[in-house]
Amino acid sequence: MRKFSQDVLGSIAILKFPEKTLLNKKKKLAKEFLRKNNQIKGVFEKAGKIKGRLRKAEIRFLAGDKNQETTYLENGCKFKFDINETYFSPRLASHRKEVSEELAKKIKNNQKILVMFAGVAPLPITLGKILKKQNKKVKIISNEINRKANKYAKENIKLNHLEYFIEIISGDAKKLPTKLKQKFDIILMPRANLKNTFLKTALKLSKKGTLIYYHGFGERESVIEEIKKDAGGKIGKIKIKKAGEIAPYRFRWLVKFRVK
Predict the structure, then answer these.
(1) Domain 91-258 has what CATH class?
(2) Fewer CB near the last or first residue (10 Å), C or N of the chain?
(3) pTM (two decimals)
């Protein structure tokens, strides 16, 4: 039987144990993990699901240093964040890279890009880094409702020297059409598993030809149905593929379409 799964984020490890594992057993395994991995300073447990619109995790300290802030390297980018106050999934690293590399080939100079639900800005920064290397002149707007995530996003943008490329607009995504009063060429929606699709908001920020990348959850057919329900006849052909497993036999889907 597997003892636990793990996510390593810089100097912090987050372990997830099978149900009914006793706390004393968890602490013992955490101390063993700490001894065998010199680069790890603190070991924590994923004690519950990601909750709410702020996407805060339920984290429990198990061993080592109690400091919840870490710096993590991914795809040549540096990210700083608090594991208890902000959402960050290292398991989406390859997905972020794939999406960014794909988009970088399509993006033209002076285009406007919006990343909704951006968290500490891993997707804007991964994309921005590639576009900077290509010497493309673009503006990326990073939007997130979690104030602490925006604080780290601002710091991460500086750490990666992308101040010219990325601007942070904080607050509720629903208010973006009023706040921004502009249309975007590309909208990325790495949203959490929420009831609201936010597609109606995205469409208000779109123009003819806007390319939207949307994250949906559950069954493939239900994801397509929710998009058709909220976007109706305003979008063109839908392309959909798996973008990671969120639970046994339950998937995250990446859906791509253009606005008519």
Answers:
(1) alpha beta
(2) N
(3) 0.92
